[in-house]
Specification:
Layout lengths: L11 H14 L4 H6 L3 H14 L7 H15 L2 H11 L6 H5 L13 H14 L7 H11 L1 H24 L16
Helix pairs in contact: 4-5, 4-7, 4-9, 7-8, 7-9, 8-9
């Protein structure tokens, strides 16, 4: 149960946000409703997300695996739910994304680079970040500095999202239900 009301004031900004969310995602996103209680925070959050959507130096699949690994590490069920749903358009197999929280138990499901990216995302997501020089250098060697900067920024952004959603008490909104193969 959310710790914050999901019925923010019906301001013009919140009504536009709800319209955009329904149009883009098929429903109004709970994090948007929670943040809608403070218009300045909402505006800054939307600007940040819109800017991050234009980052393009890192492979989108690697970026997605990093985001899901970070969300899993922080234990944000809302982000995990949404992350499962958004994997489809990237061409990531749903069973692969579902294995991200336990990726170490499924080494054959992921490439060596994917495992490095997820390990980095987890290390960044620790309460005291645990990124080491060797892991960082290996990623720079494989991806290049611009992509590692983007990887670092997207994991930091997911930490922001996940920690806010967890603090607000937001849980699954049913996005991954749309991904499931219906029973026969």
């Amino acid at each position: 149960m959310p710790r914050i009301s999901l019925t923010p004031p019906q301001t013009l900004l919140n009504r536009i946000g709800a319209w955009y969310s329904r149009r883009t995602y098929g429903k109004v996103l709970d994090p948007g409703l929670a943040v809608g209680h403070n218009s300045r925070v909402l505006i800054a959050y939307v600007k940040l997300e819109r800017g991050a959507a234009r980052w393009n130096r890192l492979d989108p699949a690697l970026k997605h695996l990093a985001v899901v690994a970070s969300a899993a590490r922080i234990n944000c069920s809302w982000c995990m739910d949404f992350g499962q749903w958004t994997a489809g358009p990237l061409g990531l197999p749903l069973d692969k994304v579902a294995q991200v929280p336990q990726w170490r138990d499924h080494p054959d499901a992921f490439t060596e680079l994917e495992r490095r990216v997820m390990a980095y995302a987890e290390a960044m997501s620790e309460t005291e970040p645990a990124v080491d020089d060797e892991s960082f250098a290996a990623l720079v060697d494989r991806l290049g500095e611009p992509a590692v900067v983007e990887l670092t920024a997207v994991v930091a952004l997911e930490n922001f999202r996940s920690r806010m959603n967890s603090a607000f008490g937001l849980t699954s909104q049913g996005f991954s239900d749309a991904c499931a193969v219906p029973a026969r």
